[in-house]
Design a protein that fits this description.
14 helices; disordered N terminus; single chain; 252 residues
């Protein structure tokens, strides 16, 4: 254990705490994007929480907050050489991730069922918009599944778990209005819809990783490419007949 601790301590601080710092930034972004929820108990951009699903919204918010706090703590424990506690908390993380997936599906479907038929989410009808939360949660689940299955290979585990957190924070990023207005009505909106700045965040995190570690991380690059391709796919499939059929099934 002493040798392991010494090895971690010998690394530059930026390398040791890269994932902790990066996830703290995701937490800050979440607080900004969901400031109406966290500080005013309201929905974006200032609507009251929908009464029939208010408990579901609050429960999901708590689970999301716990996930991010755990995602900050886990790489910090590794940086400190405390692998045993990291592994113990990993079990709690798996439970929280499972809850987030379940709650994300439930909340996405329940929200659309309660949405007025004539309501529009940008250019999407409620049924089309259902692709956004459902497939975003699916990507989160896939990243977590790969990260957990590769927990003994840190070069894969770490970027996959970070990208899971970034995918989960996508909803918060899309609610930062001044960012959304920067590309509204452009080809970028047609390509990535609500997720453009989530993709930007993924690319910037990869660039930062390359600069801090002074090398090209192929697994981090793969994770970024998966996230980018996935969100492009979500945006393109939302208006297809195939998604219309899937959404119809999910909505009952």
């Amino acid at each position: 254990m002493r040798n392991s601790t010494a090895t971690h301590a010998s690394k530059p601080i930026a390398e040791r705490y890269f994932y902790t710092i990066a996830t703290v930034l995701l937490l800050v972004v979440t607080l900004i994007g969901f400031k109406m929820f966290y500080f005013h108990g309201q929905m974006h951009p200032g609507r009251p929480l929908t009464p029939p699903i208010k408990p579901l919204i609050v429960t999901h918010g708590v689970a999301m907050s716990l996930w991010l706090l755990l995602a900050i703590a886990q790489p910090f424990l590794i940086a400190k050489g405390n692998r045993k506690r990291h592994m113990a908390l990993g079990k709690a993380g798996a439970v929280i991730a499972g809850c987030l997936v379940f709650l994300g599906f439930r909340l996405g479907i329940a929200s659309i069922k309660l949405a007025p038929p004539d309501m529009m989410y940008g250019e999407l009808t409620p049924k089309q918009f259902l692709a956004v939360p459902i497939l975003d949660v699916t990507l989160f689940a896939l990243f977590v599944a790969v990260g957990v299955s590769m927990r003994k290979r840190s070069e894969i585990h770490r970027p996959m778990m970070f990208m899971a957190s970034l995918a989960a924070v996508g909803a918060a990023i899309s609610r930062i209005d001044f960012l959304s207005h920067l590309y509204a009505g452009t080809i970028l909106e047609k390509w990535f819809g609500f997720f453009f700045f989530t993709v930007v965040a993924a690319v910037l995190s990869f660039v930062a990783h390359c600069l801090v570690f002074r090398r090209f991380d192929r697994w981090f690059a793969v994770a970024v490419m998966i996230l980018t391709a996935w969100f492009w796919m979500v945006t393109q499939c939302a208006k297809t007949r195939a998604w219309d059929a899937i959404a119809g099934f999910l909505l009952g």
